[in-house]
């Protein structure tokens, strides 16, 4: 295994250790999201690859899927993370702007977007696109940190000498958006995460 992959994995483990210091088991959090999303089948899209942490969870659970991100740099880190575990072939990585997706209408049965809403500068445009490409009986899994989770996130970034930018709109506004557009919504909340499971109504 080459040096770049190994060094990247060490950074991945260090970030996990920092979260654990503040009481967050990131593997447990991702499994909580995954379990809430089941059953998982059909054509799967992840919006917002980031460094590939949730992509790794999906791949470890045996899924093959497409993952998009606007940042090539971030997605390259994700590829290194997946390659360390021998799972890079589970993912079709694509550089895409989530506000203007290249996919056809009704393309995906399940769309995941995990810890991304607070990054979106135009979240409603992303939601419009997500709704457009969602299959008729499909579902969107939107998950983001709750108040406690954001407090931990701020501490993690501060420990690394950084700050974490957060957009004005969050999951509550996205819930209102989808509800107003006729979607059925289930809400779940864990210690650090809140999850919306959004279903296209068939009638």
Helix/strand layout:
Blueprint: H1 3-21, H2 26-37, E1 44-47, H3 53-60, E2 65-69, H4 72-84, E3 91-95, E4 108-114, H5 123-133, E5 134-145, H6 147-159, H7 171-180, E6 184-189, E7 193-199
Parallel strand pairs: 1-2, 1-4, 2-3, 4-5
Antiparallel strand pairs: 5-7, 6-7
Helix pairs in contact: 1-4, 2-3
Question: What is the compact description of this entry?
Answer:
With 203 residues, this protein is α/β, with parallel strands linked by helices.
Structural commentary:
This protein has 203 residues and is an alpha/beta fold. It has one domain (3-11, 41-199): Rossmann fold (3-Layer(aba) Sandwich). Helices cover 42% and strands 23% of the residues. It is built from 7 helices and 7 strands, in the order H-H-E-H-E-H-E-E-H-E-H-H-E-E. The protein has helices at 3-21, 26-37, 53-60, 72-84, 123-133, 147-159, 171-180, and strands at residues 44-47, 65-69, 91-95, 108-114, 134-145, 184-189, 193-199. Strands 3-2-1-4-5-7-6 form a 7-stranded mixed sheet, sandwiched between helices. Helix 5 links the parallel strand 4 (108-114) and strand 5. Helix 1 crosses helix 4 and helix 2 packs across helix 3 (53-60). The longest helix is centred in the first third of the chain and has 19 residues, at 3-21. The chain is globular, with a radius of gyration of 16 Å. The N and C termini lie far apart (52 Å).
Mean pLDDT rating: 93
User: What is the CATH C level class, in words?
Assistant: Alpha Beta
Number of helices: 7
How many domains comprise the coordinates?
1
| Uncertain residue segments | none
Largest beta-sheet details: 7 strands, mixed
Output the structural class.
alpha/beta
First-residue to last-residue Cα separation: 52 Å
Work out the helicity level.
Answer: 40-55%
Shape by Cα distribution: globular
SSE string, helix = H, strand = E?
HHEHEHEEHEHHEE
Which range does the strand content fall in? 15-25%
Order of strands, widest sheet? 3-2-1-4-5-7-6
Number of strands: 7
Under CATH, the homologous superfamily reads Vaccinia Virus protein VP39
């Amino acid at each position: 295994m080459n040096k770049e992959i190994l060094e990247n994995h060490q950074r991945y483990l260090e970030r996990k250790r920092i979260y654990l210091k503040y009481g967050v088991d990131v593997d447990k959090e991702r499994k909580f999201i995954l379990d809430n999303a089941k059953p998982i089948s059909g054509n799967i899209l992840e919006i917002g690859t980031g460094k590939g942490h949730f992509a790794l969870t999906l791949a470890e659970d045996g899924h093959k899927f497409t993952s998009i991100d606007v940042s090539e740099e971030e997605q390259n880190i994700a590829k290194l993370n997946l390659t360390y575990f021998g799972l890079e072939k589970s993912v079709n990585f694509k550089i895409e702007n989530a506000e203007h997706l290249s996919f056809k209408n009704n393309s995906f049965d399940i769309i995941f977007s995990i810890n991304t809403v607070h990054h979106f500068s135009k979240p409603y445009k992303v939601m419009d696109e997500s709704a457009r490409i969602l299959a008729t009986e499909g579902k969107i899994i939107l998950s983001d940190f709750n108040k406690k989770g954001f407090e931990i996130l701020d501490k993690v970034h501060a420990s690394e000498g950084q700050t974490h930018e957060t957009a004005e709109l969050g999951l509550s506004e996205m819930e209102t958006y989808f509800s107003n557009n006729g979607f059925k919504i289930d809400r779940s909340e864990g210690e650090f995460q809140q999850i919306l499971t959004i279903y296209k109504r068939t009638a």
